[in-house]
Design goal:
Elements: E1 40-41, E2 50-51, E3 56-61, H1 76-85, E4 90-92, E5 98-100, E6 103-110, E7 113-118, H2 132-144, E8 155-164, E9 167-172, H3 179-183, H4 193-198, H5 201-206, E10 214-220, E11 224-229, E12 242-247, H6 251-259, E13 265-267, H7 271-278, E14 284-298, H8 308-317, H9 320-328, E15 332-334, H10 356-365, E16 372-379, H11 382-396, E17 400-407, H12 409-416, E18 424-428, H13 436-439, H14 457-468, H15 472-488, E19 492-504, E20 508-509, E21 525-526
Parallel strand pairs: 3-12, 3-13, 16-17
Antiparallel strand pairs: 1-2, 4-5, 6-7, 7-9, 8-9, 10-11, 11-12, 13-19, 14-18, 14-19, 15-19, 20-21
């Protein structure tokens, strides 16, 4: 197979690759289970005192998944967990090339036809063999899943054909520039058809069966999810046996657990703790740029927020630089577009100038000189709450009263942003496929996210054109026009770009920070 053809170059050297050499993709060197280092340094100590051999990785998660269903829960913690449980057809390597995983060979017969060969030595955790029929069934789920339907709109699952156990032809309704990137994402984890059809939705989401490097053991709500090494895994097996995903919502509490040895590795810490850890020789701290923009999204069915002048007034009333500092400190940078600067297609369009007088003038022109009120919904996450509070304070200066409602993350994303009851939200989406189509997936009119989507014809036209354009220069031009239009009409109001943080005990080796907050934990070992 040919080396991945890169269509662009960005801060992350992201690629829309068609294929790559097997030897050059995801080739992580590490000992097999039982042959790696057995002894470690005691947590928090550097005296050289040997601790008992570790056989469990304790990972601190900042949230609890809604359900461990790849196609029906898009929370990052869900994706991270599912990445350990499920396999995808492809994976993205450290250079952002598309590489083989369950798929061993693939070829675009034409713009609408992807021919795929899959491995014949893979079994699910229940012992059943994984076949092309399971892949086709998963694509059917992807076409209708809450977390996947928008991204799979170009897939023609009805005309996808299974030739035999190891071959299938995936059809497209229209050309899709990021098809392989989507198939490499955790939302495309291949599920066991017979298991999915034999259990109800709740059981499927609470007792997952995949083919990944780890198998599900138990889920104690609010406390932990335990996985165990899959000794029948077809690929590189983890060097440790147990993976304990501890649910610790409070960032400070998670940092303390790391310092005291309660957990070995965690993500999404307060920047103050990360800064402190960088000065601590007994903690390894990491920061990486994200593929996420935090922005104010508006429900366009709201009788007042549907007015463009009102949205522009809100944009000019918010001092985004201050919001960035108030909500994130040094843990974020100012956003300069509706697309993160780390993503292919980014254009620096700049933010609306902070101008209270102009904001008041625009409100008067729109007929709301005396102000108005609306609600915003946010997840019970410190940074989101602080963002909403900062925005509320700035809007108060122009007589706009924004009430803040908090919900657990699953309810916030799964219900409040969909049912139309939320007038607005400080929203974000991590473009972990490294493609702009995902960055804007909830903006589509048919995304199902009522509070975030728009029926604006120009926006939806540009979204469709960008999704289907395979010529690099033309695609860049489409997304540049889209970013200009979003700013001009205040379709959404960008605020900040996140910085992703991780911290680990010094004996945790083989860890590579993931910009999508979904590290592959099977490569970790202890020494």
């Amino acid at each position: 197979m040919k080396k991945a053809k890169k269509l662009f170059s960005a801060l992350l050297a992201i690629s829309l690759a068609l294929s790559c050499a097997l030897a050059g993709c995801g080739n992580r060197q590490q000992s097999d289970p039982g042959s790696g280092p057995a002894s470690t340094t005691a947590p928090g100590g550097n005296s050289g005192t040997a601790a008992p051999a570790r056989d469990t990785l304790n990972y601190g998660m900042p949230q609890e998944p809604g359900k461990l269903d790849p196609q029906n829960d898009s929370l990052l913690v869900t994706k991270m967990t599912n990445k350990q449980l499920y396999d995808t057809l492809f994976v993205v390597d450290e250079d952002k090339n598309i590489c083989p995983n369950l798929a061993t060979e693939w070829k675009w017969a034409d713009d609408l036809t992807l021919e795929v060969t899959i491995r014949d030595d893979v079994t699910f955790h229940n012992g059943e063999k994984l076949t092309a029929a399971d892949v086709a069934y998963t694509l059917e789920r992807c076409a209708t899943g809450n977390a996947t339907a928008t991204l799979y709109a170009s897939f023609d699952v009805e005309n996808t054909v299974v030739t035999d156990d190891t071959h299938l032809t995936i059809k497209m309704k229209s050309p899709y520039a990021s098809a392989l990137n989507i198939l490499a994402n955790a939302i495309s984890g291949i599920v066991c058809k017979s298991y999915a059809q034999s259990v109800d939705e709740t059981t499927f989401g609470r007792e997952p069966i995949g083919s990944g490097a780890f198998k599900f053991v138990e889920w104690v709500s609010g406390d932990h999810i335990t996985l165990v090494r899959n000794d029948d895994y077809w690929g590189q097996k983890p060097a440790y046996t147990n993976l304990n995903l501890r649910i610790i919502n409070d960032n400070s509490a998670r940092a303390m657990e790391l310092e005291t040895g309660g957990i070995d590795l965690t993500d999404s810490l307060n920047i103050a703790d990360v800064t402190r850890f960088k000065e601590n020789p007994n903690i390894e701290a990491y920061t990486v740029p994200s593929t996420k923009v935090v922005y104010m999204a508006f429900n366009e069915s709201h009788p007042i927020l549907s007015n463009e002048k009102v949205r522009l007034a809100i944009a000019h009333a918010i001092d985004a630089q201050s919001v960035c500092k108030m909500a994130y400190g040094d843990g974020a940078i100012l956003a300069t577009s509706s697309m993160p600067s780390t993503l292919y297609g980014y254009k620096n369009v700049g933010l609306h100038e902070y101008d209270v007088d102009l904001a008041k003038q625009l409100l008067a022109e729109a007929g709301y000189a005396d102000g108005f009120s609306f609600n915003t919904v946010c997840p019970s996450v410190a940074a989101s709450i602080k963002t909403a509070e900062a925005v509320k304070a700035f809007l108060a200066a122009v007589n706009i009263d924004m009430t803040i409602e908090q919900y657990d993350a699953a309810t916030w994303r799964g219900t409040k942003l969909r049912d139309g009851s939320a007038d607005s939200a400080p929203y974000n989406l991590t473009a972990d496929t490294y493609d702009p189509d995902q960055n804007y997936m909830h903006l589509y009119a048919d995304s199902g996210f009522v509070t975030v989507s728009t029926k604006d014809e120009t926006v939806n036209r540009l979204l469709e054109e960008g999704r289907g354009e395979t010529d690099n220069e033309k695609r860049l031009a489409i997304y540049a026009e889209l970013q200009d239009y979003i700013k001009e009409h205040a379709i959404e109001i960008p605020l900040v770009e996140n910085i992703i943080s991780y911290a680990a005990q010094p004996y945790v080796k083989g860890f590579i920070p993931d910009v999508g907050v979904q590290p592959d934990l099977k490569y970790i070992y202890f020494e």
